[in-house]
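Shift notes (night). Ran DUF4440 domain-containing protein while the centrifuge was going.
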Amino acid sequence: MILLSVALLAATPNVAQTVAPDPALSLQLHRADEALLKAVHSGDRAAWQRLASSDFAYVDEEGGVTPLPTFLAALDPDTEKPLQIQSYQLTRAGDTAIVIHTDTDEQQVKYLFTESWQRLNGDWKLRLLHITNVLVDPPALTLTAAQMDELVGTYCSGPDTLVLQRDGNRLLSKRTGADEVEQRAETRDVLFTPGNPRIRKVFQRDASGKVTGFLRRYITSDVLWVRVS
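Came back to this:
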């Protein structure tokens, strides 16, 4: 009988755990997140102690990881209004829920929150929080035709080639194997691609003011492109 029971257990397939929205839980955690946002600005440590797990960690956009005790110690009341939740998505798999929500502050700066919630001893607790600023394109300047022509040319970095040309009042760049894209000016010597604000082209000049190349800057990483014609 024991051998038969063991055989039956071994033959039983694993039950797949479904991942799906849960409207009731979404409403519950939405309210919890609103309470946590208010608690950040009021310095309410008790709210965070109630809703966060003991192993809670906050991951910021610079890559720092802050445990709950350090996070609580840094909470102080301020005069700003709490962030306002603009969109909220939740999926649940058993006792785990993943939440993604976007928020805005008083200046309409947008933030993206990614959260991991888990039901522990019957209560839903926030275990992991990551917040990043949603970047947008910087204000663009209008360059004169002469200023754009100073930047026009062919640039190389290793085996790759990029051609920058002017089409009327627009600057267009074409990299080997890629589509042609418009460039906008943040300053006279700094260009960006609309919709991709993390990357800049920072142009370099020699002592006479002639453009010699540019640095393709991704946040803090630079790749040099040399002007060849």
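Confidence is low (pLDDT under 50) at residues 1-12. The helical segments are 2-11, 23-42, 45-51, 68-73, 145-151.
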